[in-house]
TrEMBL record:
Keyword Nucleus among UniProt keywords: no
Source domain of life: Bacteria
Keyword annotations from UniProtKB, A to Z: ATP-binding, Nucleotide-binding, Transport
InterPro entries for this protein: AAA+_ATPase, ABC_transporter-like_ATP-bd, ABC_transporter-like_CS, P-loop_NTPase
Coiled coil stretches, renumbered: none
Record bears the keyword Cell wall biogenesis/degradation: no
UniProt-recorded Gene Ontology molecular function terms: ATP binding; ATP hydrolysis activity
Family annotation (SMART domains): AAA (SM00382)
Domain ABC transporter span(s) in chain numbering: 4-231
PROSITE patterns: ABC_TRANSPORTER_1, ABC_TRANSPORTER_2
Protein name per Swiss-Prot or TrEMBL: ABC transporter domain-containing protein
Family: Belongs to the ABC transporter superfamily.
Native organism taxonomy: Bacteria, Pseudomonadati, Pseudomonadota, Alphaproteobacteria, Caulobacterales
Pfam families linked: ABC_tran
């Protein structure tokens, strides 16, 4: 069973398709990072998943329940914070959670359970108006955890936080799949963040899901090295003539893309070719592939489609 499964999910505004035939495959018990530039359709997709918008086509299953046919049951599996945390400043953290607890008709003990998860048992006695933004976000997360949902949808959870707040939120999110026995679906435009916290990632562009895979698979594949050389254009041209994947990044730097597992051998070969042709190579620095590379390779190319069959 998947935490989120969509088929042909489509949403149009005034004839313009902003979510286009999206097939999300989000496994259970993981952190899934949902990436894409502004306007790519992430928020619209999340609103569709939460039943806040009606799709023009396609289906949504949340933790095995079809959203159209078993709406209550499906949404009962989901906790979310989609807009930035809205709390009653004049109430304590505890009382804020208590209002939601009563609405959901949950036992009192639920509040202590969720406060424990977000590490705010003591702070919950203070009024929410005195909290830092990081604490407000954690309290909002605690509220989303009320009722023990198996799926959490978080929209830009570190937005506006300082470095300490970002770190605390990241650690918290990383530990959540284990603690809730479920999945955390996080939208973000911070590639570095998703690389640190997510096991799976999906990338949207112009309403389409153009990448979806395990993060370790996305980061695998070709590795690159940066070679510092006296004449990068000519050096890169020579390497390309010898069937190597090389490009001049600037006057003095060649980027050499190596096949999986062949980094050392291909780098040594490129170095020998250049030196034998009287180029001066002064540094060779391997560069581990990052999600930023995947993002740029994918989102800047009009034709690429990294989707793997599910
Ligand atoms: N209510 C609406 N009416 C018309 N167009 C809309 C509406 N909501 C969103 N859009 C358009 O749909 C597209 C996708 O927007 P969406 O907010 O889903 O993108 P996003 O990936 O979440 O971007 P951001 O990171 O900026 O929030 C955008 O072009 C946006 O202008």
């Amino acid at each position: 069973m998947l935490a989120i499964e969509t088929e042909h999910l489509t949403k149009r505004y005034s004839g313009r398709t902003v979510v286009d035939d999206v097939a999300l495959r989000v496994p259970m018990r993981c952190v899934y990072g949902f990436l894409g530039p502004n306007g790519a359709g992430k928020t619209t997709t999340m609103r569709l998943l939460l039943g806040l918008l009606r799709a023009d086509a396609g289906t949504i299953r949340l933790v095995g329940r079809d959203l159209a046919h078993r709406r209550r049951d499906a949404l009962a599996q989901v906790g979310a914070f989609v807009e930035s945390a809205s709390l009653y400043d004049h109430l304590t953290g505890y009382a804020n959670l208590d209002t939601t607890r009563r609405l959901l008709n949950l036992p009192q003990g639920e509040i202590d359970r969720v406060l424990e998860i977000v590490g705010m048992r003591d702070a919950a006695r203070a009024r929410a108006g005195t909290y830092s933004l990081g604490m407000k976000q954690r309290l909002a997360l605690a509220r989303a955890l009320l009722g023990a949902p198996k799926l959490l949808l978080l929209d830009e959870p570190t937005n506006g936080l300082d470095p300490d707040g970002i770190r605390a939120m990241r650690l918290l999110i990383r530990a959540l799949p284990e603690q809730i026995g479920g999945t955390v679906f996080v939208s973000s435009h911070l590639l570095n963040e998703v690389e640190h916290i997510a096991d799976h990632a999906g990338m949207m562009r112009d309403g389409r899901l153009v990448v979806q895979d395990e993060v370790r698979m996305l980061l695998g594949g070709s590795a690159t090295v940066a070679m510092t050389i006296n004449e990068a254009e000519a050096g890169a041209a020579l390497l390309r003539a010898r069937s190597m994947d090389a490009a001049a990044l600037d006057d003095q730097t060649i980027r050499l893309r190596c096949q999986d597992g062949a980094l050392i051998q291909q780098t040594a070969m490129a170095n020998r070719i250049l030196v034998e042709a009287d180029f001066m190579v002064s540094a060779i620095v391997p560069h581990a592939r990052t999600l930023e590379d995947v993002y740029h390779d994918t989102l800047t190319s009009a034709t690429s489609d990294y989707r793997r069959p599910a």
